[in-house]
Amino acid sequence: MISDKRFMKTLKLWRTFKEGIENFRRNGWLTFATVSILTFSLFIVSLSLLIGMTTSLILENMRAKVSVSVSFNPDVTEERILEIKNELSKYTKEITSVEYVSRDKALETFLAESGNDPVIAQAIQEIGENPLLASLVIKAVRPEDYPLIVSQIENSTFQNDISRINYAKNKKIFERLDRINKTVGKAGLILGAIFIFVSILITFNTIRITIYSHRQEFEIMRLVGASNIYVRMPFVFEGALYGLVAAVLTLGFLFGMAYYFAPFTTGALPQGNVLNLFLGSFWPIFGALILLGISLGVVSSAIAIRRYLKV
Amino acid sequence: MPAIQPIIRFENVAKTFPGDVTVLEGVNLSIQPGEFISIVGASGAGKSTLLKLIYAEETPTEGEIYFSGRPLSHISRKHLPFFRRNIGTVFQDFKLLPERTAFENVAYALEVDGRSTADINLEVPEILEIVGLGAQMHQFPRQLSGGEQQRVSLARALIHRPKVIIADEPTGNLDPVSANEIIQLLLQINSFGTTVLLATHNKGIVDKLDKRVILINKGRIFHDQNKGKYMLQ
User: Which of the four, A31, B2, B166, B205, has the lowest number of CB atoms within 10 Å?
Assistant: First the structure.
């Protein structure tokens, strides 16, 4: 008997679902308009999220590459520098690594980075001695600790041994990226909210029109003993369908977008590029979009049903 | 004689619409199972409202209506659809779904009840056969005559095997021959034990029926006669 009841319920649900599909199909260009605006809204929301995600990943990636380089005066001996290195290495809470770069090593790297340009090599030879300084390359545990580490070093017992500390250069790039990240996030949120609001209104209106075109049927449904839920369910399914189709379309557009922008972001992300980032989190994005799309559709139809379908 | 529980009972029922329009007043009425009752009266006398009160499309402003001894005011909105399956309704304008065939229109009443497709395929042709539409089963309402459409509507009303059939001017849009066929069908249904309530203007039909007649005038029961005739006040 219980399984009988469950069977009946499933059957009724299936029938109302078919009815919902029928509404979706019959609405023609109204369906097109509704799906379009829903897709557009979902696209705006997910795009701003994706841009936000990408910029914060780029930031993080850059932060990982960032270090502070402390250069020592030429008269400071290697023993002294290594002593300082040992001293700094004790601060394991703040500092991940301290690497010693000798003058020879620095020159070697410099020449390699300049592409072994013979002009540069000759210029250095003319100076007669290695113009570069020995340095310690320090990596912090947390990027935000750099200013603190820098100021600690500036005020340390070995402050007189230091020629210069280069950190300020990176700071500006950071601040700019951080600003972009925050602006994009804010703009996306506001724009997304506006579009979501508009798409709820439009979906609501579409369902309202469907309800209106079916208005004579409700009386008949009631007379033959259709329950309220049976009368309402098709419209809920109709709304859900708009959202579902919009979510799938959005996913397609996002893929296209990521595919197009992949070459421009190569190397900037730990994942390689945006396409890899997109494909790497495809299922979470897919799930979130479908969920958001369906919720938008269902909320819109729920409002329409509440206002226009008095059973 | 042992008292049989009336299937429908009105107890001091009044219905007032907003704007202080009184449509029914002081209605006391008892209908036994298996009766065939004609409800007559001028347009606007309150016939339709009386019927609507029975299938709970309207609620009385005063008094109480009992269905099989159960007060209708105690039925929750949620259970109303289930209650309505006890009552089959037929109207002057047929109220068929235009985009569904005769078969689908009748099937619809079973679909909403969650009945299986196998059941539907078995029961719908049977009932359409009873009302004489076996051959036109897959035609759309627009392809059927008025009388045929009304028979589809009657088939739909019967599909739940209701205890009561309420027919509000079922012959109002029909030619005399079709009208007579519908009345014959109602009589046939009644002979199987279903209570039939027929609201009509048609004097010829009422007089020929020779059954109980209730005359409503200005919202009150004016006459209530067994084996009555249609008479205007």
Answer: B2
Of A198, A247, A211, A195, the closest CA to residue A35 belongs to: A247
Using the CB atoms, write b or e for A149-167: b if 16+ within 10 Å: bbeebeeeebeebbeebeb
Query: What confidence tens digit (pLDDT) does each residue in B194-213 have?
Result: 999 999 988 888 888 889 99
Which parts of chain A have pLDDT scores under 70? 1-3, 63-64, 168-171, 173-174, 267-268, 270, 311
A152 touches chain B (CB under 8 A): no
Are A220 and B97 within 8 A, CB to CB?
Answer: yes
Tell me whether residues B114 and A224 touch, CB distance under 8 A: no
| C-alpha to C-alpha distances, B230 to B48, B202, B205, nearest whole angstrom | 17, 8, 9
H-state helical runs in chain A:
2-26, 29-65, 78-89, 103-113, 118-127, 146-154, 168-213, 215-223, 228-261, 274-280, 282-308
Contacts of B72 (CB under 8 A, 6+ apart): B53, B56, B59, B64, B65, B66, B83
Look at B82 and A228 and tell me if their CB atoms are within 8 Å.
Answer: no
Cβ pair B82:A220 closer than 8 A? no
SS3 B166: strand
Q: How far apart are CA B120 and CA B140, in angstroms?
A: 18
**Per residue in A16-25, is it b (16+ CB within 10 Å) or e — as a string?**
bbebbeebbe
Q: Which residues of B are less than 8 Å from A222 in CB distance?
A: 57, 81, 84
Burial class (CB in 10 A: 0-12, 13-18, 19+), A64: exposed
Q: For residue B26, give the H/E element and its range.
A: strand B21-31
ipTM, two decimals, is 0.73
Taking the whole predicted model, whether its pTM rises above 0.80 is answered as no
Quote the pLDDT of residue B61.
94
Tokens 């960032």 correspond to: A66
- For chain B, say whether A224 makes contact (Cβ under 8 Å): yes
**Dihedral sign, CA of A84, A90, A94, A95?**
positive
Say what the pLDDT of residue B232 is.
Answer: 54
Q: Which amino acid is at B109?
A: A
pLDDT beneath 70: ranges in chain B: 1-3, 228, 231-233
Instruction: Name residues whose C-beta falls within 8 Å of residue B118's C-beta, 6 or more positions apart in sequence.
Output: none
Which chain A residues touch B57 with a CB distance below 8 Å? Answer: 222
Could you tell me which residues are beta bridge partners of residue B147? none
Q: Is A56 exposed, middle or buried (0-12, 13-18, 19+ CB in 10 A)?
A: middle
